[in-house]
Design a protein that fits this description.
356 residues; mainly alpha; 80% helix
């Protein structure tokens, strides 16, 4: 997790400058070309069982995500009108979480004994082929992205990352509502990462389940975010409706409290399948809580992204999105540190959910 997040600290400032200086569809295609190279490298590492190389690839994937974030969000207001921004951001958010679900499902299927035996291939080869195949499809899709004008073609790139990081954070602070929106989004990443990072241990230690149950719980959260993001457009009436933000925050709190209240009595039998888990009393309540936490997270975050895009100066927007990514990363690391401190102090995982 640290290796993946580290590039957001190191390279977000540079990524924001590049996204403001150059035409964005070209940058998207180049980032997606890099993705093919990285997935070939990942497939090689999987087949050769080179775990240190896999860690290097993970870091490089963090670099690639760092480059893509400012381009993706700053592209939307160049092609969408103000009354379309909520819908555009809702599609990006829901699409992202649908992709997470598909990744969990396809990744899980790719390493099953039945598939490898049926295809007479080892699991690493199947998984590597999936990665490279998806990367190629994504690159072909990126070729359909329409051209946009560069917003600040005369910008001189400052390669001093630390100095430029301070500079872009000052851009973000120029408009108070934009900076408060960034802090709000960063809180959601703090909240979401603190919850989702603990789901595997919660499944194992509290629910007495396995990796399949973990995937189900994460999928419930991801489906919730996707549904909440899409409903956000309907509920806002195609306007940037900030009233949804406190509504979302109340839902995040209420259903996190209920998730603490829903912790089951200790189960003697281990749940080896989704069916066995669902037969247990209280399991549907836990799934519903996670899905609703995700849904209210969608209500909470989508209007904030749209507000940043609307109220930021167009020639600075990519750098402001980069500043958002830096602060998001700080809050995610803070969430991990807080979780470690609380759990090592004797708090249980459900109590951690309650505190968050």
């Amino acid at each position: 997790a640290g290796l993946f997040i580290l590039p957001f600290f190191l390279f977000s400032a540079t990524a924001g400058q590049l996204a403001d200086k150059y035409e964005k569809s070209m940058l998207i295609r180049r980032v997606k070309t890099l993705e093919i190279v990285l997935m070939i490298l990942a497939a090689t590492a999987l087949v050769s069982e080179s775990y240190s190389l896999l860690l290097v690839v993970l870091f490089l994937m963090g670099c690639q995500s760092t480059m893509f974030g400012p381009v993706k969000y700053a592209y939307l207001p160049q092609k969408l009108s103000d009354d379309e921004l909520i819908g555009g951001n809702a599609l990006v958010e829901s699409g992202t979480y649908v992709a997470i679900i598909l990744g969990l499902i396809v990744g899980g299927i790719a390493v099953t004994d039945n598939l490898s035996n049926g295809l007479e291939l080892d699991k690493q080869t199947i998984l590597g082929t999936c990665l490279v195949g998806v990367a190629i499809v994504v690159y072909l899709t990126s070729r359909q992205v329409p051209l946009t004008k560069a917003v600040d073609p005369d910008l001189k790139i400052n390669w001093n990352a630390w100095k430029e990081t301070w500079h872009i954070v000052q851009f973000a602070r120029e408009e108070r509502s934009v900076f408060l929106s960034i802090l709000g989004i960063s809180w959601f990443w703090f909240f979401g990462s603190a919850m989702t990072i603990q789901i595997p241990a919660y499944t194992l230690d509290v629910l007495n389940g396995n990796e399949t149950i973990t995937t189900l719980l994460l999928a419930a959260f991801a489906v919730g975010v996707g549904i909440g993001s899409l409903f956000c457009e309907r509920m806002s009436g195609h306007r940037i409706e900030l009233g949804l933000v406190p509504f979302g925050s109340i839902g995040l709190s209420l259903f996190s409290i209920d998730l603490y209240m829903a912790q089951p009595e200790s189960y003697g039998a281990h749940a080896n399948s989704i069916g066995e888990f669902l037969m247990r009393p209280g399991s549907l309540r836990i799934l519903a809580d996670l899905a609703l936490i995700g849904a209210f997270g969608g209500f909470y975050s989508v209007p904030l992204y749209a507000l940043i895009q609307k109220r930021s100066k167009r020639q600075h927007l990519s750098r402001i999105i980069a500043a958002n990514n830096i602060i998001n990363s700080l809050l995610m690391v803070s969430a991990a540190i807080l979780s470690m401190v609380l759990l090592q102090s004797g708090f249980s995982i459900p109590e951690l959910f309650l505190i968050i």
